[in-house]
Amino acid sequence: MRKLGLRELALRELGLRKLALRKLALRELALRKLALRELALRELALRKLALRELRSVPCRKTSRTTFRK
Question: Does 41 map to a domain?
């Protein structure tokens, strides 16, 4: 194996650094997508709960709550 010159070493290190940064950026993007999806699911669940509470009407005869369909 031949020795690498300073210029070649610098270029190689620069390439490796770029690769590492690209990997990091992709990982951050994936995490951001995951967080946004989780947030959307949570918002959807809260919306469903709110709609269910709006539809619930106390029954006059009993103290139970009936749900309109």
Answer: yes
